[in-house]
């Protein structure tokens, strides 16, 4: 199978080769950049290339989830990745907010401002055919600014797809990278490495995550993909509608809390764990807040959702065959089967609501009625559950509070980027708040790290931030 190349690949290759030759002929120091190349460090030459000659990388990990925003344009990107329409779609996605690619990301505006004021600080990375492996977002920003050239390091002529993927990931995951991968794109990048045969330990090193985070994120991606599959609807027009990966970008905190609650309950009651999972996934898809989702326990539906629950029928639950083995696992209970039916109904209704161009007015009407009935019943149940749950679980309350703080910090990053993009950011404005935050971090370190654990990297970090030596608690 031949590798797809840009239609101007031959012309670009000649320009690249001519400029590399001219670079060698020039006396004095030449700009270079060092990359990770097949397990070693490789220094490659840097040249200046016209922005218009370069192509966006259709396989970039930065917008994998966002590609699902428009299935028709995604198909065009898959089938004709270097065509005008596909490259225009990539340009839009690279500028877009990860959770809503139809809007420009404030961090993209901040990047544009930085490039306009300071120019390009570090080179991108490009193949001999002009495909950008690193620097796609910078090309988009420079194009928007009307700049004509981009400095790029040129890869060796034998660079394979595996080489390109490894280079992109190694550069994007360095601490100094300018624009983080979004949550879903990080999960997809890890999943790609798993399927490429990387050992878990190597992936954890490359992505700078702990084994617990690796397991958590793998579970979350599996759950999201299952939800998408279960949401699939074939409308009366024959078009297929389903939820998309991008629909879950804003739910990181809720999904991580679901994983913790599910795995804790799975140890003592697998059936309760599945009931909890079904109900919380349904609430997440219905855009309920993290505080609301926390109120949903395994018995929530039995207490509050009976008006919308389909009838239980234990006879429809079949035993589960374990792949590769002849043994079977017990079928889910009638209650869990009924919950799955309700969740499936909601997932399909939400898919119809999000893809109205692919379904008929009758489909939309049925979906709207389903969503309205379930939302109203769920809201009443959450109100009642909130009244009866004045005191949250003592052990998980600190984790929940800290998780909320992490979400607030994510919002702060966006706010700072937005302020910078409009020229209204002054770092000194943060000084008083940061001083107060440090005081509270010190107090948190004193309370939470009284018994230091060698395996607790998070608490070790907290101690370091608070400047507490090991063993000091006050």
Oligomeric state, counting identical vs distinct chains: single chain
Number of helical segments with 4 or more residues = 18
| Structural domain tally | 3
Q: Tell me about the biggest sheet?
A: 5 strands, mixed
Helix and strand arrangement:
Elements: H1 9-25, E1 32-37, E2 40-50, H2 71-79, H3 84-95, E3 96-97, E4 100-104, H4 106-118, E5 124-126, E6 132-134, H5 136-145, E7 149-154, H6 161-172, H7 183-195, H8 200-207, H9 211-231, E8 233-234, E9 240-241, H10 252-266, H11 270-285, H12 290-294, H13 300-304, E10 320-321, E11 328-329, H14 334-354, H15 361-388, H16 397-421, H17 431-448, H18 457-466
Helix pairs in contact: 2-3, 4-5, 4-16, 7-9, 9-10, 9-14, 10-11, 11-14, 14-15, 17-18
Compose a concise summary of this entry.
This protein is an alpha+beta fold and 474 residues long. It has helices at residues 9-25, 71-79, 84-95, 106-118, 136-145, 161-172, 183-195, 200-207, 211-231, 252-266, 270-285, 290-294, 300-304, 334-354, 361-388, 397-421, 431-448, 457-466; strands spanning 32-37, 40-50, 96-97, 100-104, 124-126, 132-134, 149-154, 233-234, 240-241, 320-321, 328-329.
């Amino acid at each position: 199978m031949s590798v797809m190349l840009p239609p101007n690949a031959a012309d670009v290759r000649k320009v690249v080769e001519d400029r590399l030759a001219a670079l060698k002929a020039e006396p004095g120091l030449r700009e270079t950049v060092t990359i990770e190349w097949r397990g070693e460090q490789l220094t490659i030459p840097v040249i200046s290339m016209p922005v218009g000659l370069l192509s966006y990388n259709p396989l970039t990990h930065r917008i994998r989830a966002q590609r699902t925003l428009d299935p028709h344009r995604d198909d065009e990107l898959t089938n004709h990745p270097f065509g005008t329409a596909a490259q225009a779609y990539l340009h839009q996605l690279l500028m877009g907010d990860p959770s809503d690619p139809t809007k420009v990301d404030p961090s993209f505006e901040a990047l544009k401002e930085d490039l306009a004021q300071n120019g390009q600080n570090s080179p991108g990375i490009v193949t001999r055919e002009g495909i950008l492996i690193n620097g796609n977002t910078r090309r988009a920003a420079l194009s928007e600014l009307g700049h004509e050239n981009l400095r790029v390091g040129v890869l060796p002529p034998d660079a394979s797809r595996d080489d390109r993927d490894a280079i992109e990931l190694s550069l994007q995951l360095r601490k100094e990278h300018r624009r983080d991968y979004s949550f879903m794109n990080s999960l997809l990048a890890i999943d790609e490495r798993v399927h490429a045969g990387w050992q878990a330990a190597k992936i954890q090193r490359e992505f700078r995550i702990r084994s617990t985070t690796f397991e958590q994120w793998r579970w979350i991606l599996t759950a999201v993909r299952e939800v998408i599959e279960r949401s699939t609807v074939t409308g009366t027009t024959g078009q297929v509608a389903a939820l998309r990966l991008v629909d879950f970008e804003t739910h990181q905190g809720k999904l991580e809390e679901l994983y913790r609650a599910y795995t804790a309950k799975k140890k003592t009651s697998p059936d309760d764990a599945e009931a909890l999972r079904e109900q919380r996934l349904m609430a997440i898809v219905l855009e309920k807040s993290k505080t609301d989702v926390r109120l949903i326990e395994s018995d929530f539906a039995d207490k509050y959702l009976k008006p919308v629950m389909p009838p239980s029928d234990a006879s429809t639950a079949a035993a589960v065959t374990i792949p590769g083995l002849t043994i079977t696992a017990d079928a889910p209970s009638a209650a869990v089967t009924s919950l799955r039916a309700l969740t499936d109904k909601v997932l399909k209704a939400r898919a119809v609501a999000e893809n109205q161009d692919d379904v008929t007015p009758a489909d939309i009407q049925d979906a709207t009625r389903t969503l309205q009935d379930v939302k109203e019943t769920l809201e009443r149940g959450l109100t009642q559950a909130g009244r009866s749950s004045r005191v949250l679980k003592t052990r998980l309350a600190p984790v929940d509070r800290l998780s909320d703080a992490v979400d607030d910090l994510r919002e702060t990053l966006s706010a700072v980027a937005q302020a910078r993009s409009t020229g209204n950011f002054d770092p000194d404005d943060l000084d008083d708040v940061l001083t107060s935050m440090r005081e509270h971090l010190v107090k948190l370190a004193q309370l939470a790290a009284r018994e230091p654990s060698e395996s607790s990297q998070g608490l070790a970090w907290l101690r370091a931030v608070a400047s507490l030596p090991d063993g000091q608690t006050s």
